[in-house]
Design brief:
With 139 residues, the chain is of the alpha+beta class. The protein has a single domain, classed as Thiol Ester Dehydrase, Chain A, CATH 3.10.129.10. Helix content is 24%, strand content 34%. It has a five-stranded antiparallel sheet with strand order 1-3-4-5-2, with helices on one face. A hairpin with a 4-residue loop joins β3 and β4.
Amino acid sequence: MTGKTIDQLTIGDQEEFSKTISESDIYTFAGITGDLNPAHVNEEYAKTTPFKSRIAHGILIGGLISTVIGTRLPGPGSIYREQVLAFKAPVYIGDTITATVKITDMDTTKNKITLNTFCKNQEGVVVVDGTAVIHPPRK
């Protein structure tokens, strides 16, 4: 299975992926990465923070963007080249996050596309905003 090649893409194309963030997601991510920051894994500590409850790791949420790129737009065979992320708002256990990527620029000679990347919660609040540069699969 191969994703869309650059000749199958146009500026303005977009795709998305949604996921509800669970406590298990946070603990699994913490275990895989070793990021055991108590803001993520310790409710009593998290109550003392400005967020008042545990929050998801920012990079866990940013990873949902990778899901869109690797499975939907352009899809399998895409190569991530760079990603810039700005974390705008916290994500809590139970939030449903929708990651969206939208093509904003294309360089057909270099087989390179630039994407606007962002994640919103169930209330439409942008929690992550950024840009990515990727190489879609070749023919």
